[in-house]
Amino acid sequence: SGDARIMEGVLGDEELSLFRPSAKPAAPLRCIIYCEFDPHLGPRVAFQSPPGYVTADVCDALADHLLSSPDLCGRLISVAAFGLRFVGHPELLLDPRYERNQLIFNTCLVFEAGTEASTYTPLVSSLAANLRHLETEHLFLTSQATRPLTQQVLDGMRHDISVHGELRMPPHGCDFLPQGSQLTSFSAKLKDSLLPAVPETIQQHEVPVLLTPTSTVESLTNSVPTLPRLLPLLDRALTIKDIAQRAQLEVEEVISAVRQLMLHGVIRTIDQIAVNNVYVPAWRITDLLRNTQLMSQFCAYCRPE
């Protein structure tokens, strides 16, 4: 099927969408996955943050593509399939300590397919170099004592990239990483281009509007603790003040949550008066009848339930 079609290659300019501004920030990060070649099980996805964002079926289908031949190790790769784009930097370590005398792993940033991800490429390379150093010097990824902490490292990296627009070492909540490691953060220069634009002030009369499916937003509960109480009220009609009253929260708590969701690129706000506006389609609306790809983009943007 079309959803299962896999496209691999180096990163390039993305095709512009009629439903996204051409001068947009980079695509919001949806997930980070760590995959490796297991000498007994073959290629597999071992950790992901948030857990379960990429389904098991998709992980199984893409494992071979994310852990391709050793010839591609040390290079940036991009794989697009199942409505997602995976950007990674496979690493190959040769050492007699490993079974088959080698370890192949890849840590990929995951975005929605068709979105701009090229801004992240230097960050992906830096992320791979840091994990390579942790494994080379401390066997962090393969030691039974430290391997389970990989999940926490991915969580911390996702937090720092999504909230601060940069890769920090050690990542958020990961002070347990070996002291004195030659780990490098990257890079405050990317911050402005990585983070979606967020207004300086958010007013209580504004109406929050989701831009992505509810299932995507639910995965952000760790970053936005009040999300379970807010999500049922994000119906494109209630103002921030109304939501605060119904959720029994302070207005500032709701504004803070909306700001965090904006940083993740899953929500925006509109003025209450715009909810009652009447919109007339332009003449190009007829293109929807002839262009199936355009129709798919339109439906995804409107987020039908």
UniProtKB/TrEMBL annotation:
GO terms for molecular function: GTPase activator activity. It comes from the Eukaryota. One of its GO terms (biological process) is negative regulation of TORC1 signaling. GO terms for cellular component: GATOR1 complex; vacuolar membrane. Belongs to the NPR2 family. This is Uncharacterized protein. It comes from Hemiselmis andersenii (Cryptophyte alga). The lineage of its organism: Eukaryota, Cryptophyceae, Cryptomonadales, Hemiselmidaceae, Hemiselmis.
